[in-house]
Specification:
By secondary structure, the protein is an alpha/beta fold. It has nine helices and eight strands. The protein has a single domain (3-258), classed as Alpha-Beta Barrel (TIM Barrel). Helix 3 packs parallel to helix 4 (114-129). It comes from Roseiconus nitratireducens. Belongs to the metallo-dependent hydrolases superfamily.
Length: 270
């Protein structure tokens, strides 16, 4: 089955991973801007990173018949440095016309601090000003419920936000309902250690019906598995779910959400 991975950090993966993903049925992916494994020290460091996301990774992906899209921001892990964050936010418009850029992300909270909230809101303002979709990072483990609520409250307080153009990622059982009930899209991230397993993701699909719901691998610097979405497909099949429902979650829903971005010129593989 062809699928799309809506959130995978290919800068942390080898070219062999692109080959494996293509063989497993991945036809497109989106890569949110993220932490580099260390805190970058200058706006020029981010400028080079954005060139990697808009030039190098699309070329690597294309070698294996995969379309690569991306999102731009300074991640919440680095948002404590407000002055640098503002320099990066001011620089982002240089890249918004690149043909694989879908919007602003992954923005959100890490430790739920005041500085993180400030930088988050300034990213949101940038997205609104430039008519961009938004991809949200929700905090890890013990901070997730509080951080998710803080993020949703900030978004809902801004009447300019089109909730149908916001994807709130890393949802779990205790956060998914509020995200969907407030009109946002929800993303389930499959990690072998933290976040969500294919089995738990299948449980959440059964609970919600799969509307406005996506599933991704993240595939970043920590313990992660770039082929986690196929694992989810196999789990759904093991439970006897229809191919139509599975395709909706792993292919049709990403297409529907990403199609709201003007640069999502998607050519399905024949």
């Amino acid at each position: 089955m062809d699928y799309i991975d809506p959130h995978i950090h290919m800068v942390s993966r080898t070219t062999d991973d692109y080959a494996t993903l293509s063989r497993m049925g991945c036809v497109a992916m989106s890569e949110p801007a993220f932490w580099a494994g260390y805190d970058r020290g200058s706006v020029d460091g981010f400028r080079d990173y954005f060139r990697q996301l808009t030039e190098t990774e699309p070329a690597r992906a294309a070698q294996f018949g995969i379309q690569h899209f991306t999102w731009l921001c300074i991640n919440a892990k680095e948002a404590e440095n407000v002055s640098l964050s503002r320099e990066v936010i001011a620089m982002i418009p240089e890249f918004l016309d690149r043909p694989n850029v879908l919007g602003i992300g992954e923005i959100g909270l890490n430790k739920n601090t005041k500085n993180e909230a400030t930088v988050f809101l300034e990213h949101v303002d940038l997205a609104v000003q430039h008519d961009q979709s938004i991809l949200i990072h929700t905090p890890h483990l013990e901070d997730k419920f509080q951080g998710t609520k803080m993020i949703l409250d900030m978004l809902c307080d801004d009447q300019r936000i089109d909730r149908g153009r916001v994807l709130v990622d890393h949802v779990e059982e205790h956060t998914i309902s509020e995200v969907l009930d407030r009109g946002f899209w929800a993303g389930m991230t499959l990690y072998p250690v933290t976040k969500c397993t294919p089995e738990r993701a299948a449980d959440m699909v059964e609970r919600t019906g799969g509307e406005r719901l996506l599933v991704n691998s993240a595939g970043d610097w920590g313990p992660s598995k770039p082929t986690a979405v196929p694992d989810f497909i196999f789990e759904m099949r093991r439970r006897g779910h229809s191919e139509a429902l599975i395709r909706k979650v792993v292919y049709e829903n990403p297409v529907a959400f990403f199609s709201q971005s003007k640069h999502f010129q998607f050519a399905p593989r024949s």
